[in-house]
């Protein structure tokens, strides 16, 4: 595989993860950040902001995490998410448009 190229299966997984308005809203929120939290947010904060249930938000974040688009970190009882510093190229391109 040449540098900068990704396998078709990986490309498909990334594009499927991005092809959902709720997940795009999550990415927009994480991209925006608020200065205070440095572009990261808990599942509960994300759910409240995009007006979705905790369970549904958690499922969407799991899909984004499986596609290496977001990173997660557990702190005590809460899970925090942020955009991955090593975003796949297709994800970086889409997020730049948000």
From TrEMBL:
Q: Does the keyword RNA-binding apply?
A: no
Keywords assigned by UniProt? DNA-binding, Transcription, Transcription regulation
Molecular functions (GO terms): DNA binding; DNA-binding transcription factor activity
What SUPFAM superfamilies does UniProt report for this protein, alphabetically? Answer: Winged helix' DNA-binding domain
Q: Which Pfam families match?
A: HTH_20
Tell me where in this chain the HTH arsR-type domain is found.
3-98
What protein name applies here?
A: HTH arsR-type domain-containing protein
What is the protein's species of origin?
Answer: Candidatus Kaiserbacteria bacterium RIFCSPHIGHO2_02_FULL_55_17
């Amino acid at each position: 595989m040449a540098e900068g190229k990704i396998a078709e299966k990986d490309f498909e997984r990334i594009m499927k993860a991005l092809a959902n308005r709720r997940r795009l809203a999550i990415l927009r929120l994480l991209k925006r950040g608020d200065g205070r939290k440095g572009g990261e947010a808990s599942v509960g904060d994300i759910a409240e902001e995009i007006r979705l249930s905790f369970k549904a938000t958690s499922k969407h974040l799991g899909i984004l995490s499986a596609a290496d688009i977001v990173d997660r970190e557990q702190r005590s009882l809460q899970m925090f998410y942020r955009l991955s510093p090593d975003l796949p190229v297709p994800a970086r391109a889409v997020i730049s448009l948000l």
